[in-house]
Amino acid sequence: MIEFRFGIGDLAATWFGYSALQETVLSMRARSAGAYYPEQQGWIARWQPAYETLDTELLESLVTPRRWVPDCLIPRPRTPRPDFRAELEVLSATPPELVHQDVLEAYGNDGSPLPPVLVHGLDDPSALLTRIVDVLETYWTRCLLPAWWPRARSVLEADIAHRGRVFSERGAEGLFADLDARISWLDGSLRVTDTNPAVEALSAAIEVAGRGLVLMPTLFALGAQTDIAPDNPPLITYPARGKATMGETAAPAPAAALAELIGPPRARLLALLETPASTTALAHRLGVTPGAVSRHLSALAAAGLLDRTRHGRSVLYRRSPLGDALVNG
């Protein structure tokens, strides 16, 4: 168990964010352990032709058989929504000796032998890192960025919006109780429990001591995990709320009466917007242009059926109480 002890002001320095690079690296878990990530399998099948053009031997070696990842591959974000290529630049600057150490440590914790591609690669960690950065950028560009990432980003943004509401309505105890079963909050201490023996061996009580806490939703974790690097604020990743919606391939059918009242396109949007989503994500789900979605969203918001919230560069829409009453009534 890891226990984080909060002092006065530490909660005020707590923030949420997500990392496109982290999601890119961790997405390989869904390929190697598909039974744990059924909502991702349709996406993997769709981008398979593009995936087969990549350096797949190296890409698949970045996640161990038991889903460990070398720490250096997912550098801690400094801002809530870092740019993917800026993250790659940070990764590129990793000292070669750290690459060597983290790869061996990940496979050592896993208990699995190094794959041949890494055995040979560690002879020259600097060249290996260059090759890793190149394959991650190509994988991102060809497979994830066109359609998967807009949908994934919408889920992550919706999670953060939800957590903000929970924190404002129920405080720290409500927030942490809602994150994950492995997390608990009691008397100013946050506890993260993980039954993995390699994690249990790291048990410690850590003073946050003014450093703040970073909370990161992800689509590729089965439970909360933590990073306790001494020079950085504590970080906890946790399963994103609504990640199962990544498996939805069609919008729910609206009630016939609602479709007759406001028209089928707007009725479908209202049915979708039980949880927040962006214009781009909605367009992908409905198979229409963002411009068409935007016009309908504006009309629904003007009628008081939707609420709008800005999160970074995205605007998220969600049904208002009046919209809920219309859909559920």
Describe the structure.
The structure is a single chain. With 329 residues, the chain is of the alpha/beta class. The chain has 16 helices and 11 strands. It has 3 domains: 2-16 and 151-241, no CATH class; 20-150, no CATH class; 250-328, Winged helix-like DNA-binding domain superfamily/Winged helix DNA-binding domain (Arc Repressor Mutant, subunit A, Orthogonal Bundle), CATH 1.10.10. Helices cover 48% and strands 14% of the residues. The strands form 3 sheets. Strands 3-4-1-5 form a 4-stranded mixed β-sheet. Strands 2-6-8-7 form a 4-stranded mixed β-sheet. A hairpin with a 2-residue loop joins β10 and β11 (314-319). The longest helix is centred in the middle third of the chain and has 32 residues, at 148-179. It is globular and about 65 Å long.
Summary, kept brief:
This protein has 329 residues and is α/β, with parallel strands linked by helices. The protein has helices at residues 20-26, 28-32, 41-46, 48-51, 56-61, 84-92, 96-110, 116-121, 125-144, 148-179, 197-200, 256-262, 264-272, 279-286, 290-302, 321-328, and strands spanning 2-5, 14-16, 183-186, 189-192, 204-207, 213-218, 225-227, 235-239, 277-278, 306-311, 314-319.
* Percentage of residues in DSSP E strands: 5-15%
Strand order of the largest sheet: 3-4-1-5
- Write down how many β-strands occur, each being a DSSP E stretch of 2 or more residues: 11
Give unreliable regions as ranges: none
Over all CA atoms, what is the radius of gyration? Answer: 21 Å
Q: What is the average per-residue confidence, as pLDDT, rounded to a whole number? A: 88
The general outline is globular
Q: Give the count of helical stretches.
A: 16
User: Structural class per helix/strand content?
Assistant: alpha/beta
Roughly how much helix do the residues carry, as a percent range? 40-55%
SSE string, helix = H, strand = E? EEHHHHHHHHHHEEHEEEEHHEHHEEH
Biggest sheet overview: 4 strands, mixed
Number of domains: 3
Distance between the termini: 46 Å
